[in-house]
Amino acid sequence: MEQESTATESPRPQSNMRLVAVAATAVALLGISIPFVWQSQEVPTLSAAQAPAPVASHDATPAGGAGEDPGACMANAKPANMDFTMKDLDGQNVSLSSYKGKVVLLNFWATWCGPCKAEIPGFVELQEKYQGQLVIVGFSVDDTAEKARAYATLYKMNYPILLGEGREDVQDAYGPIWGIPASFIISKDGRVCRKHLGIAPKAVFEKEVVALM
């Protein structure tokens, strides 16, 4: 069900989401610089007894179905709620359920989000490379159609952009989402196999979507 917004609508409470996006940018820059600092230091050799135990991933234990890469989907993967219809940049109604049968990368983003901008070139490349097998869906959380359309043109976004202004129901279905970018990788059979709350490299997204194809 769609919700319509009006011109007299009060300002949207997006301050927390914007703050998280700024923090994500700082963390991403820190993550890029750490390896160079680390490489300049001498790392002592540890014996097998001294070596630290491996740390478990936050994603949970993966489990695969028939013919599926065992590492492709989390063991506790839940069905994705795709029973939503939204407007695209041309004002046409688009249902998320229409993408079933393909791998879907659902990305929550906004034009004001710096980390979101950093992910876009990778998404463009992945959409072009795996066209027909992968659908990247950009869910613009609070932009107007005009602003999102201009941004999509500027950055040559070659994948569907859906307008999420006033559609907190969609965010709630995949959340809680406290900040963006937030990305959810959905398998052909409609399970949320992976999620990234924050910026992630193109190589990580590619590895995860290919494992589901």
Question: How is this structure best described in words?
Answer:
With 213 residues, this protein is an alpha/beta fold. The chain has a domain of 143 residues: Glutaredoxin, CATH 3.40.30.10. Helix content is 31%, strand content 17%. A six-stranded mixed sheet has the order 1-8-7-4-5-6. A two-stranded antiparallel ribbon has the order 2-3. The longest helix has 25 residues. It is globular.
Question: What keywords describe this structure?
Answer:
213 residues, alpha/beta, Glutaredoxin, six-stranded mixed β-sheet, two-stranded antiparallel ribbon, 8 strands, globular
- Find the count of extended strands (DSSP E, 2+ residues): 8
- Please bin the fraction of helical residues: 25-40%
- Inertia-based shape: globular
The CATH superfamily name of the domain at 68-210 is Glutaredoxin
CATH architecture of the domain at 68-210: 3-Layer(aba) Sandwich
SS class: alpha/beta
Q: Termini distance?
A: 30 Å
Topology (elements, then pairings):
Elements: H1 15-39, E1 78-79, E2 85-87, E3 93-95, E4 103-109, H2 114-129, E5 134-140, H3 145-154, E6 161-163, H4 168-174, E7 182-186, E8 191-197, H5 202-210
Parallel strand pairs: 4-5, 5-6
Antiparallel strand pairs: 1-8, 2-3, 4-7, 7-8
How would you sum up this structure in a few lines?
With 213 residues, this protein is an alpha/beta fold.
